[in-house]
Design goal:
Chain lengths: 112, 642, 289
């Protein structure tokens, strides 16, 4: 396809400017990873730690898909297609963990 | 319509004239004969190949069913051994679902979708061929067991753990089943990715999403369902394969595994799978009813939206197959409610179909008969389904013949009747001849009576306690009459199918010739000759409204002007461009077949060799490029006419 | 990796653009990634489900994990994503040299990630006695991270093939160039394997004998052949990678590189989820679980 395709999406930075955006994001990702490594050793209550880890991972995740993978500058359709998979995958994960976490599902060998 | 193929050296880039690049294999150019079929990338040929293989497997699955029904004809029968009976019901289910109905739907996706959207082929023609040949590979792996000492798979079409573990199925029948299904999964996912790209990107100018034929919409939704559901069974199969070949503990209770996980992962795939089987059927019906009622589809946006809703909610109901496994009150209620909710969009579609018929000028041709049969029989299947959704009632129905009755009403009464309608309806388009009307109607009635005779008694057999998958039953259970009638019905149903097929085959050779639009229909495929030329459309149409062909028929002058203008454009651009044929999809599929068969036999050297062939096939395929050549329809007048 | 105009549907330079304006390959890949979300979702679910009520005797992950190593490999993978994005950016601007070097660094980082995984697996199996067969944790952990590692390996292969493809001479056709490409690939593979092998043994030697010159010289005498092989391979790659005249690869191939980049980034984001769900969360829950 022609290289000027990039410039047909309104409001995106020119290819030169993207270089710096990418590097900055990479630095943010590195810092967040460091933060994650730090907080697991802190004596906060469990729900807070779990919430924090999930949030930090989600931030990394979203940075990569919207910037490195371009979704921010692409047509909305691609974001929708991907999020269908993400929502179904995440929903299935949540449902399975809930199902197996229910009292009725505790295996006999794990009972006290 | 004759065309003068003008083969150019066009490979998309500056090349010396006449130089065609070849990588290992010279690019095939045969238009007839075996090579033409093996290397085709034409969606129409691929669709016919899918249909041909699927029809063969449909017959095989039918034979397996008749053997089952013969075994159950009378109490304590010994027509087949118990183990062979297990192989029969396993392979009947697996064959009908994966090797008959799914590929028949794939056949129609291939044949119809590009033409309905005004395109010349799918987005990735070689990938399309790859899907077909990988399907054949999977079919071979699944059925290889019939020729081996181990025998065919015998653990049920849903292969519950731990029956599929090495402890309980030491022979390779379970390996053939798991590896075969895995390979079929690859075929389905790749084909669906192709159709998503095609439907989204290759629509003719003016064809907005809300002007798409309903069948194409259903194809799109089904493709999304396939790519989202198949990964779950892929993982489940990986876990069983690893347990069997590498000694992992996914379903090994002694080391912390839980077999119930298989059930969850399987049904996370398995439930959307049944919507994968029925949504295309709803698509065919949504095309056929308007044509034979001479009215547009009632409530098009709602029908489309309901289809999407069914697809989406379908991912949230899987544990209704597991109501009796003790998941706890909350989980059971949640899935029961979600299952009841799915009945709503389904019912909405039925009301819309009835709305289409209401006040229409009905023509009772064979496709219409099958379509009307579909509405009624699918509805009955839906009723028994909603009865299942009440978890307490399901405790009685689960694993009984009531379930068998339910799913055959939706899968035969639903999917199969719709497919039979579709074959009748589109036969003239792709073969240029209509199926004999009289014998078509006879086959409908024989099938209808035979089907109901077979499966209606099963509701009562189930409620009276007859369990599924039982080899024999005692004479004092009260099940004798039901089984006897059911088996007689099965023979009648088999006869009906034979009449249908015989009529179709006879008509292929001697049927009345058909023009482009024998039914006075509404969608774009009826605007091109029967059978269609290689390039489908001489001139890519511009779509002005829903039911594009109906609009073209009502506005002939406007359309004629448009077409001659576009024809001049196409000719100025060098003619119609078509992709070249290729050996590599076949080569890559052969690699996957080798790898699968060898792996199932624990032959890792062979598996790696197969993998290497697969990789080489794909790499050379990518280096070969799509290539292409030009075709010129004879005259602009020719091009503009139908 | 096909000829430039192949990025257009049905390959006609004057064919109507796609109905959405998005190239076919891009939409194919995003749909595939959505599907892969379900694939990894169910696999991660399996692992998490089996962590809810582990049987007695199941290994305790926090006693096995080397979180520093895993953090390092996570960081490397994130940086490889950066390099991939830069490679795509470079080819969009038509800068072939920059694209090639970014691709090489991406491949390098991907290989380092794989090397860390190999190290970790060996550590678990031989030192910690956690295998894929002797516990449920071993089964789910190795299958999940192994599947991810396989995705990374496929990505590295794809990157190498794309890199090699960028050397196709303009006007080439037929067997000659393909033969050279295959040689290039084999040299690549051999160099990668020998380099990783050497590095791996060097690391083991240092861990065993401390960071001293004696350790390094000891290692070199023991494992001279693979080290020399790796160096020779690097030299051969240098030679194969020299500019040779005009090539059939430019900004019109950007879509192919971008699609490959999407796959690579996806493999990275799956790792982000795995790092949190499989590694970090274990430290939040009490050990005697």
């Amino acid at each position: 396809m022609n290289p000027s395709l990039l410039s047909t999406v309104p409001g995106h930075p020119p290819a030169q400017g993207r270089f710096f955006v990418f590097v900055q994001i990479a630095m943010i990702l590195a810092i967040i990873t460091g933060l994650e490594l730090l907080i697991i050793f802190l004596p906060f209550p469990k729900p807070l730690l779990i919430g924090g880890l999930v949030l930090l991972s989600a931030v990394k995740f979203l940075f990569v898909i919207f910037f490195f993978m371009h979704l921010r500058w692409d047509k909305l359709l691609l974001t929708c297609v991907f999020f269908i998979g993400l929502v179904l995958g995440g929903g299935t994960l949540w449902a399975l963990v809930s199902l197996f976490g229910a009292t009725a599902s505790v295996p006999l060998s794990s009972l006290p | 319509m004759a065309e003068a193929p003008a083969k150019s050296a066009f490979t998309g880039h500056d090349q010396p004239a006449g130089a065609k690049s070849f990588i290992l294999f010279r690019r095939p150019t045969a238009k007839t004969g075996l090579v033409a079929w093996l290397t085709t990338v034409d969606h129409k040929k691929i669709g016919m190949l899918y249909g041909f293989f699927a029809a063969c497997f449909f017959l095989l699955g039918g034979v397996e069913a008749l053997l089952i029904r013969t075994q159950l004809l009378v109490p304590n029968n010994h027509f087949v051994s118990a183990h062979f009976y297990s192989e029969l019901f396993t392979m009947h289910g697996t064959t009908m679902i994966f090797l008959a109905v799914m590929p028949l739907n794939a056949a129609f996706f291939n044949l119809l979708v590009p033409i309905q959207i005004g395109a010349r082929d799918v987005a990735f023609p070689r990938l399309n061929a790859f899907s077909l040949w990988v399907f054949v590979a999977g079919a071979i792996i699944l059925n290889a067991g019939w020729f081996l000492k181990a025998g065919a798979p015998a653990a049920g079409w849903f292969g519950y753990a731990p029956l599929t573990s090495k402890t309980f199925t030491p022979d390779i029948s379970a390996d053939l089943w798991t590896v075969g299904l895995q390979v079929l999964g690859v075929s389905s996912i790749v084909a669906s990715l192709n159709f998503i790209a095609t439907i989204v990107n290759l629509r003719a100018p003016g064809l907005t999403m809300m002007r798409l034929p309903v069948f194409t919409w259903m194809a799109l939704i089904t493709s999304f369902l396939i790519i989202m559901a198949m990964p779950s069974i892929a993982i489940a199969l990986v876990e069983v394969i690893f347990d069997r070949h590498f000694g992992t503990n996914f379903f090994e209770v002694s080391n912390g595994g839980q077999p119930i996980l298989w059930q969850h992962l399987f049904w996370i795939f398995g439930h959307p799978e049944v919507y994968i089987l029925i949504l295309p059927a709803m698509g065919y019906i949504s095309e056929i009813l308007p044509t034979f009622s001479r009215r547009p589809l009632f409530g098009y946006p709602i029908v489309v939206f309901s289809g999407a809703m069914i697809g989406f909610i379908g991912f949230g109901v899987w544990s209704h197959h597991m109501f009796t496994t003790g998941m706890g009150t909350v989980a059971t209620s949640a899935f029961a409610l979600a299952t009841m909710a799915i009945a709503v969009p389904t019912g909405v579609k039925i009301f819309n179909w009835i709305g289409t018929l209401w006040g229409g000028h009905l023509r009772m041709r064979p496709p219409m008969l099958f379509a009307l049969g579909f509405i009624w029989l699918f509805m009955m299947g839906g009723f028994s389904g909603v009865m299942h959704s009440a978890a307490p009632a399901d405790s009685q129905q689960h694993n009984s013949y009531f379930v068998v009755a339910h799913f055959h009403y939706v899968l035969i009464g639903g999917s199969t009747f719709a497919l039979l309608a579709a074959i009748h309806y589109w036969f003239p388009k792709f073969f240029g001849r209509t199926i004999n009307e009289f014998w078509g109607k006879v086959s409908f009635w024989v099938i209808f009576v035979g089907f109901n005779t077979t499966f209606f008694p099963m509701h009562f057999l189930g409620l009276n306690g007859m369990p599924r998958r039982t080899w024999t039953y005692d004479a004092n259970m009260g099940w004798n009459e039901g089984n006897f009638i059911s088996s007689l019905g099965a023979y009648l149903l088999g006869l009906g199918i034979l009449i249908y097929l015989a009529a179709a085959v006879w008509s292929y050779f001697r049927g009345e010739k058909a023009g482009p639009d024998p039914w006075d229909a509404r969608t774009l495929e009826w605007s091109i000759p029967s059978p269609p030329p290689e390039y489908n459309f001489a001139v890519i149409p511009t779509v002005h409204a829903r039911d594009a062909w109906w609009y073209e028929k009502s506005h002939p002058a406007e359309i004629a002007r448009e077409k001659s203008a576009h024809a001049r454009d196409e000719a100025a651009h060098g003619g119609i461009h078509l992709p070249d044929q290729s050996w590599y999809p076949l080569v890559a599929a052969a690699g996957l077949l080798t790898a699968g068969l060898c792996f199932a036999h624990d032959n890792f050297v062979g598996a790696i060799a197969g993998g290497a062939i697969l990789f080489a096939g794909i790499y050379l395929w990518s280096l070969e490029g799509p290539g292409g050549y030009h075709v010129h329809p004879e005259t602009p007048a020719d091009a503009a006419s139908h | 990796m096909s000829s430039p105009a192949a990025t257009a549907s049905l390959d006609h330079p004057l064919a109507p653009p796609t109905a959405t304006g998005i190239p076919n390959k891009k939409i194919l890949l995003w749909a595939f990634l959505a599907s892969d979300c379900m694939f990894f979702g169910t696999l991660i679910s399996t692992h998490l489900v089996y962590r809810l009520h582990p049987p007695p005797g199941n290994p305790v992950p926090t006693q096995i994990f080397n979180i520093e190593l895993t953090s390092f490999s996570t960081f490397i993978l994130l940086m490889s994503s950066l390099m991939m994005a830069l490679a795509v950016n470079a080819i969009h601007r038509g800068n072939l040299r920059s694209m090639r070097s970014s691709l090489l660094v991406t491949i390098l980082f991907g290989l380092i990630f794989l090397g860390c995984q190999v190290f970790e697996f060996n550590d678990f199996v031989f030192d910690k006695h956690v295998t894929i067969t002797n516990s449920i944790f071993g089964s789910t952990f190795f299958t999940l991270t192994g599947t991810h590692g396989t995705h990374v390996a496929i990505g590295v292969l794809w990157l190498a093939l794309m890199y090699i493809r960028s050397f196709k001479p303009a006007g080439a056709s037929g067997g000659g160039w393909v033969g050279r490409a295959v040689v290039h690939l084999l040299v690549f593979a051999a160099t990668a394997v020998l380099s990783l092998y050497s590095l791996y043994h060097l690391v083991h030697a240092v861990l065993a004998g401390g960071a001293a010159w004696a350790t390094v010289t000891g290692f070199l005498t023991a494992d001279l052949a693979p080290v020399l092989g790796a160096l020779a391979g690097l030299g051969a790659l240098r030679w194969l990678g020299r500019a040779h005249g005009p090539v059939d690869f430019d900004a019109r191939n950007a879509d192919d590189v971008e699609s490959m980049g999407l796959y690579w980034h996806f493999v990275d984001i799956v790792w982000i989820v795995i790092f949190t769900a499989v590694y970090l969360l274990e430290y939040v829950f009490p050990a005697a679980h």
